[in-house]
Amino acid sequence: MIKLLASAGRDDIARVYVAESMDGRRLEFVESVQPPLTHDDKWVLIISTLYGCPVGCRFCDAGGYYDGRISKEDLLAQLDHMVLSRYPDGRIPSGKFKIQFARMGEPAYNDAILDVMRELPERYEAPGLMLSLSTIAPSSRTRFFDELLDVKRELYQGRFQFQFSIHTTDEAKRRWLIPHSTWSLQEMSRYGRLMAKDDERKVVLNFAVGTGLPIESDVLLEHFDPEHFIIKLTPVNPTFQARSNNIISVLSGDDVRPLEDAGYEVIVSIGEEEENLIGSNCGQYLRAYEKGESLPGGYKYPLKEQRGA
Q1: Partner of 293 for a Cys bridge, out of 155, 173, 237, 288, CB 3.0 to 4.6 A?
Q2: What stretch of H or E contains 131?
Q3: Do the beta carbons of residue 232 and residue 163 sit within 8 Å?
Q4: Which residues are CB-neighbours of 175 under 8 A, at least 6 positions away?
């Protein structure tokens, strides 16, 4: 069980929630749409999997502390809060109903995600259901990834988006940015090909394009063939951590062309500017809530409900 503490945002773009478990640990979760699409077209729910995160990526506000795994029941409670407040009968008409295990916490550290994945097809009536999991690929979690592959093949063939968060091809800088033991690029490639096998969905290689974080197409081609992998470029979100580490977004067309020339399909994913103002970037809202800080859009804490269109 979780208790909602606060929320902020706009129902036509993104709404972020802070909640508390029965033992007082806090988490956050998000629902969003992509204008001009409506909730009936595509509705995305993004849930936390850990209380904080042990990884401590240099541009993520979810790190800095770690207080354990979120139980299966509280993983589902995050989803139920958003689903049942909009669709009380559990029937979700969205053409694409996407659940992302990509909020606070590295999902590979929580085996309960696998139990949730097994239950979801029966929990809601949602013909458009698809799942997404984004990971840095911790080196100690091979057993989790093996079981994830089994569950995907059993229940989500063609309806599962798998993403490696890499962010730079410079090994030394990647270790600074992600101060954690992870699979090598070669190990990621081996697993990614298994994930993409017999499936129309390519594995995503995500790069938040920031100052001093190179993305070299020749390094990628050594490990990731364009037949099975797709590149996603995103801006570095203006989090508290990114600002304190002087990581500034530098995404431009110059980043795209060399990758396309190398044969990759490239997605440039830039969210609505209002999302930065709301504070729906990972960990940002919870940090602001707990510290009584203000976000760029003027959302102040302690929070009073702020609703948009």
Answers
A1: 288
A2: strand 129-135
A3: yes
A4: none
Sign of the torsion formed by the C-alpha atoms of 238, 202, 164 and 246: negative
Please list, in sequence order, all residues whose beta carbon lies within 8 angstroms of the beta carbon of residue 13, skipping any fewer than 6 positions away: 32, 33, 35, 272, 274, 275, 278, 308
Alpha-helical (H) ranges within 22-170 are 72-86, 112-123, 142-155
Measured in Å, how far apart are the chain's first and last C-alpha atoms?
Answer: 30
Domains identified in the chain and CATH numbers = 2-291 (3.20.20.70)
pTM for this one?
Answer: 0.88
Cα–Cα distances in angstroms (integers) from residue 9 to residues 44, 92, 271, 303, in the given order: 15, 22, 14, 11
What CA–CA distance (Å, rounded) separates 207 from 256?
Answer: 11
What amino acid occupies position 147?
E
Closest by CA position to 190, among listed 135, 145, 140, 231: 145
- Taking only the tens place, the pLDDT of each residue in 116-140 is 999 999 999 999 999 999 999 999 9
The label of the residue with tokens 């595509």 reads 42
Determine which helix (DSSP H) or strand (DSSP E) holds 67, and give its type and residue range: strand 66-69
Tens-place pLDDT, residues 292-304: 655 544 544 444 4
Q: What is the pLDDT of residues 8-22, one digit of tens each?
A: 888 888 888 989 999
Q: Is the peptide bond before 88 cis (omega within 30 degrees of 0)?
A: no
Rounded CA-CA distance 142/71 in Å is: 21
Average pLDDT value for residue range 69-87? 97
